[in-house]
Write a structure and sequence with these properties.
The protein is α/β, with parallel strands linked by helices. Helices cover about 60% and strands about 5% of the residues. It is built from 34 helices and 8 strands. A hairpin with a 2-residue loop joins strand 6 and strand 7. The chain is globular.
Length: about 725
């Protein structure tokens, strides 16, 4: 589906093709006045007439793109879709040189051949087109690149597109250097760049933005009110002197009958922002107020009754006025970010908000709807960075939420890279690119992008949470714990943060603190799977086997078809030596895991079930599972994924077979990757064959020494 919206030029001068599937005539809404002209312009005559298609259809679309790159317009004109279709089917396009006289005749001929109406009259293959273009580039390369840049009268979007063609002649990198946006360097932590040149530092003021009430006649506008709330919250959270509670924690207070004072006590803040939205046609009325809940004093209030086209200006003004009322000092960069317009298309913005709404429902079918909405938003405004980030998130969800195949990692990465290229100053797009890097196994770059995201927005909860998880998985438990606690402070209703705090304390051997943290998580959300599964792990850590078994049986009674519940139960029974029950649960987890479950669950289940079968004398079945696991783990390691439990699983597999030297080799790899679970080393039944050897005991002592150092750092960090 070749068209400008599906083409990206990276800062390195590489062109990426984002293929969203072949367009179909039946999908067009030719009478829709809201439809943006242009999509039809890249469709071939045979495509429009419903005839059989072959690769020469793509060459037609390439011809349209080249024509537009050379002239700034499409060969069929920019009118309504029906007029465009008529021109494609019946009119011959003017040669590019008649629109821009500097276009050489050779390019006229190439583009003209690509745009022949009969497929058999076009180039037969893309290789033929490339050969023809290279012939032209050999002659054009002699002209200095700087002269071309000065002569070009094109606006910046067209100039960026023209870079792609000129790159063939070897001058693309010069244009990118002159005109392209590159990623900002990450400032050192604590530097003036991160702090926005603000001195001296002030303690941040904590506030919460409650969900704005939807007063529209159409209840379906609920997504608009929720999206507006999140956008105002996001703008406020970019201000370093404000600490803004996450939307995850404020969402439960939608339509709440609790008093503001009670809400502020539960959220741990003194100030509340609340408001309402009424959308009627092309008009919007937004009312907002800032309240000091300690005294019930209104610090600021305003109502805005304006055209919908002013929506971004209203968001910016509300955020700015709230900051002023709280006496927060804004840096120039913060002022610029507050005033930023994410898109010039209200239709694209509306589609984006709908996409975010569906994406946040955490269901596979809703994720597919979100994908379609993000694509539509991009079709309306191909420079809408947040829509590209949403698309990347939805593609990534196909991998890590719904297990639809690792192939979608590249789609997620390309969309995320596009988002950052379009607007590198948005914390959301930096977070999305970080996640895309992590999916590809590049944790170093992924973590760097999360840190860039937090440099732009210190209160951005998704970046804080994900950074904490990956720091912990790499063995930096002290840093992970600090980030988890930061996450809990910004999202006090976030049960996941407290569960992560609890598990980190347990690995450090701080069991009293771990128990307090998991009790907090369960008090916040008693039915949370994550908290309940973590509680099982803490019982195992403490050797309370009867309690752990009671907990997993309650989990299974609640949902026996949850793969993680089954895997957790299998883990508990395997550790306790009950191979029959361990096998029962692990086989069920294995059957359930591939259907929409994260790949990590699938991999660990293979090792545990293989070990169980091996202990029961069923070597053939065990070897099959080990082979499956080894293929998955080695592939992840080969792609640069440093998760220490990949090599740990390989070590366990070799230990069960009695291959001690190979097992120790993989344990060393795990240690280098950050493995610090000393308790697991001492108690894991999968390593029983190694435990009495001097090599293993020396290894365990080194792991213990590392854990002791981390525990000392944490205790020092937490001193009052």
């Amino acid at each position: 589906d070749l068209k400008p919206a599906n083409l990206m030029l990276t800062p390195e001068g590489t062109i990426r093709i984002l293929d969203f599937g072949l367009a179909k005539v039946r999908d067009l809404q030719l009478t829709d006045p809201e439809q943006r002209p242009g999509t039809v312009a890249y469709m071939s005559p045979e495509q429009l007439q419903g005839e059989p298609l072959d690769p020469r259809t793509d060459l037609w679309s390439l011809g349209v793109v080249l024509y537009e790159m050379l002239t700034g317009r499409t060969p069929s004109g920019g009118g309504h879709d029906l007029a465009t279709i008529y021109n494609i089917l019946h009119e011959e396009p003017a040669p590019p040189s008649t629109v821009r006289e500097e276009v050489p005749e050779a390019l006229d001929q190439i583009v003209g051949k690509l745009l022949r109406k009969q497929p058999q009259e076009r180039y037969a293959t893309a290789a033929e087109v490339l050969a023809a273009l290279e012939t032209v580039s050999e002659g054009s390369a002699r002209e200095p690149a700087c002269r071309r840049i000065r002569r070009s009268p094109l606006p910046r979007p067209a100039l960026l597109a023209l870079v792609a063609l000129l790159a063939v002649a070897g001058v693309g990198s010069a244009l990118v250097a002159a005109n392209g946006r590159t990623s900002p360097e990450l400032p050192e932590e604590g530097s003036s760049a991160v702090n926005g040149m603000r001195s001296p530092a002030r303690e941040a003021v904590a506030l919460a933005v409650l969900p704005f009430e939807n007063l529209s006649d159409e209840r379906e506008n609920e997504y608009f009110a929720d999206g507006l709330t999140e956008d105002i919250l996001t703008r406020l959270s970019t201000i370093a002197e404000l600490t803004v509670i996450s939307r995850t924690s404020t969402a439960p207070y939608k339509d709440s009958q609790k008093s503001l004072r009670q809400i502020t006590q539960e959220l741990g803040v003194a100030h509340i922002v609340e408001g309402s939205v009424r959308r009627t046609g092309d008009r919007v009325r937004i009312s907002a107020q800032l309240v000091d809940a300690r005294s019930d004093r209104q610090l600021w209030a305003e109502s805005y009754d304006r055209d919908l086209t002013d929506i971004f200006a209203i968001q910016s003004e509300i955020a700015r006025r709230i900051a002023e009322a709280l006496q927060a000092r804004l840096t120039p960069g913060e002022r610029q970010r507050l005033a930023m317009r994410p898109t010039e298309s209200l239709t694209a913005y509306d589609l984006y908000l709908r996409g975010r709404d569906y994406f946040g429902r955490f269901k596979r079918e809703d994720n597919e709807i979100a994908l379609g909405l993000f694509r539509q938003a991009i079709a309306m405004d191909s420079a809408f960075a947040l829509a590209w980030a949403g698309l990347a998130d939805a593609y990534a969800a196909r991998v890590h939420r719904y297990d639809q195949g690792l192939g979608w990692r590249d789609s997620a990465f390309t969309a995320a890279e596009t988002a950052v290229f379009l607007n590198p100053e948005l914390p959301e797009v930096r977070k999305t690119l970080g996640h895309a890097y992590l999916l590809k196994g590049d944790w170093t770059r992924g973590i760097a992008e999360y840190e860039r995201s937090l440099a732009l927005n210190p209160s951005y909860l998704p970046a804080i949470t994900n950074l904490g998880l990956h720091k912990s998985m790499m063995g930096e438990l002290d840093e992970g714990l600090r980030l988890f606690k930061r996450s809990a402070a910004l999202g006090p209703e976030g049960v996941t943060a407290w569960a992560n705090v609890a598990y980190t304390y347990a690995i450090l051997g701080l069991h009293t603190q771990a128990r307090e943290a998991i009790n907090t998580a369960l008090a916040l959300q008693p039915d949370s799977y994550h908290a309940q599964q973590t509680a099982v792990g803490l019982s195992v850590f403490a050797g309370r086997w009867a309690e752990a078994q009671e907990q997993v049986e309650r989990l299974l009674a609640r949902d026996g078809d949850n793969a993680r519940n089954r895997a957790t139960a299998g883990d508990v029974y395997l550790f306790n030596g009950d191979l029959v029950r361990a096998r029962e649960h692990l086989e069920r987890a294995y059957d359930l895991a591939p259907d929409g479950r994260p790949a990590t669950t699938v991999r660990r289940t293979r090792v545990l079930l293989g070990a169980t079968l091996w202990r029961m004398g069923e070597r053939q079945g065990a070897e099959q599972l080990f082979a499956e696991y080894e293929e998955l783990a080695r592939e992840a390691i080969a792609h640069g994924d440093p998760f220490p439990f990949h090599p740990y699983g390989l070590a366990a597999m070799h230990a069960i077979r009695g291959q001690r030297s190979e097992a120790m080799r993989w344990l060393e790899t795990a240690f280098s990757a950050g493995f610090v679970d000393h308790w697991l080393l001492l108690h894991d039944p999968l390593l029983a064959e190694l435990r009495g050897t001097p090599e293993f005991q020396q290894y365990a002592a080194r792991v213990k020494a590392r854990v002791d150092q981390l525990r000392a750092r944490v205790l020092q960090m937490e001193q009052p």
